Amino acid sequence: MGKSSKDKRDLYYRKAKEEGYRARSAFKLLQLDEQFHFLDNVTRVVDLCAAPGSWSQVLSRRLFEDNVDNKASKRIVAVDLQPMFPIDNVTTIQADITHPKTLNKIMDLFEGEKADFVCSDGAPDVTGLHDLDEYVQQQLILSALQLTTCLLRKGGVFVAKIFRGRDIDMLYSQLSFLFERVVCAKPRSSRGTSLESFIVCLGYRPPSNWKPRLDVNMSVEDFFQGCDIGRLTLNDELPSYCEEPRSIAEFISCGGLDSFDSDATYHDVPANSTALDPVQPPTNPPYKRALELKRQGKLTRAV
Length: 303
Ligand code: SAM
Prior knowledge:
The protein is α/β, with parallel strands linked by helices. It has nine helices and eight strands.
């Protein structure tokens, strides 16, 4: 599929380029914020899994252009495994969010202050093995959540991408233990055909005995130890086991019905419109090597 047909097929793809965003995902955060207004009065924010940086661009515009008060105390930190081209007012860190050193780096940048808002649009490279992909995605959300519990101020907001799989109600229960309100939101710019949604966790309220921890080897059960949330384990006696009532999160579609449908093909793009170049080409994408080999004719199999 050529660039111009993609411009017509997916208007968010084109609109992102028109408005100077590095990726169409920018509209997901914008539509979530339109619904929940979580960026109205924030000073310190963390964007986890941020490359190529369209969410950080939204954060930068919202914090530094839409509201010019207290610019000196505002801080945006963006973290990704991939290098990111600089963005105005954003400090970028190339690091793994599951590594404890990353937490220390962010905390140093905040000079002991807590964050008002943490978001994570993290997605691992998919293998196509569905169970493995779902497991790795869940581990990424858990790492983002662990990091968030160490960084977020009371009352703060956490937003993360999820894929609504089998055990998602368990995640809702766990999050409800830490936040006043947990909503599963689907922006119009997120394809309806995808299981992708976003958990919007409002009002961080950890219990008084809660000890925030970041340990990639810790299981979900251990992380939520003491909250009586979890699966049956080998040590549980069956007769005494009683499954917890699982939570059902509110589900909200956001972005308004007047916004573009990301699954539709729009034919009212002017015929003479030209395909726009990407705002920021990828820095070091995982497929770079494959493209180089293809260009050299080395990717074809010998007959
Ligand atoms: N929100 C971004 C934007 O608007 O431009 C798009 C994020 S992209 C969908 C997912 C990102 O997650 C990738 O850039 C990937 O490198 C990052 N990622 C995956 N695992 C990570 C990890 N363990 N630590 C840091 N970043 C990670």
